[in-house]
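Study this one:
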Amino acid sequence: MAMQAPKGTKDVTPKESYKWQYIEALAREICQEYGFSEVRTPVIEHTELFLRGVGDTTDIVQKEMYTFDDKGGRSITLKPEGTAGVARMFLEHGLFNDAQPTKMYYLYCPVFRYDKPQAGRLREHHQFGVEVYGAPRASADAECIRLAMTMLNRVGIKGLQVHVNSIGCPNCRPKYNDALREYLRGRYDQLCETCKSRFEKNPLRILDCKEEKCQALCAGAPTILDCLCQECADHFQELQGCLKSVGVEYEIDPYIVRGLDYYTKTVFEIIAKSESYSGTVCGGGRYDGLMEQLGGPKLPGVGFGMGMERLLLVAELSGAQIPQPPALDVYVAALGEKARSAGFALTERLRAQGARTEFDHMGRSFKAQFKYADKLGARYVAILGEDELAAGCVKLKDMATGEEKTMPQDDLAAAVLSKNNN
């Protein structure tokens, strides 16, 4: 059988990697503008972290986690999302003792979910996300939304819509859960088996079910916005005011609940809609009780996650132009063994001086080297034969105009870089 990547995973080839690098560089640039610092957490975590943090009634925990016992008999899980690991890190290293808020982001974060592979969402995919701990005000929520929109806009994605909701807090959510159970009680037999198991313990999860029949049953359900306590209602109003103040248009969607149990108050999704694509490209919200659930202090949190594969797919479908990597500055074409040795050394000197330089490692003929340099898109070819070697010079050819000029080897880098700047 031919070797191939496991189902639901995807290689990033040299012809595609520049797109990832561009998006990652953009994400780092924007996060720095907003005062966020990068964090990195392990790919594996103890399973209990996700049972306590993500919630045992979620689809992720019930259906999608890659969990196994290690050789020591410990239950280990490949992380299915980024927030729980960052929260664990925050507690383990005592970052709550620092001045707050703490603003962090993670990038090229591999996450694993056993689910049917779909466009832009694989069993192994990668997330870019931000986390803010210690900030109770809705302005922090709005800042996360604004950061996400800045990222998507700079990538060039069109047709973006911001959907926001509040799912309340432990003080007001029980009242809504009662109202939702009452609505669904007469429809209980029509629910899927998973939602039946959620009916008593966590009926809010039913609103997030992907089964069409359950979605149809919930279409007329009461909304949590009618059950918010005063604190949650005020927080939601402050969020809307902050978004309006920075020109972020939004739509209130009372049925957004997100797929993780740790959310409280604000939840949001950013949806891209066009003729070729319609779907969520970013989702997040507030999780004020997560730290306590993990055994830490009472400390609010808010953030979002954005799938990189989906982001790249939507960017392509939106017609966004991701810049090609810089062209090769100069290709050193050497003829003869002595010239090859000198050409190799010249190549390294040029690189050390900042010129993007390539050299022949295949033993090609002189003609084939020119052909390969053209294929690489080299702006110039530095020709080094026996005559040039004896004279301590090099011949520089402009591949666009065909113009040739002989110069000392020591002047080559300055000539190439000067012409590039012009």
Observations:
- The mean pLDDT is 91.
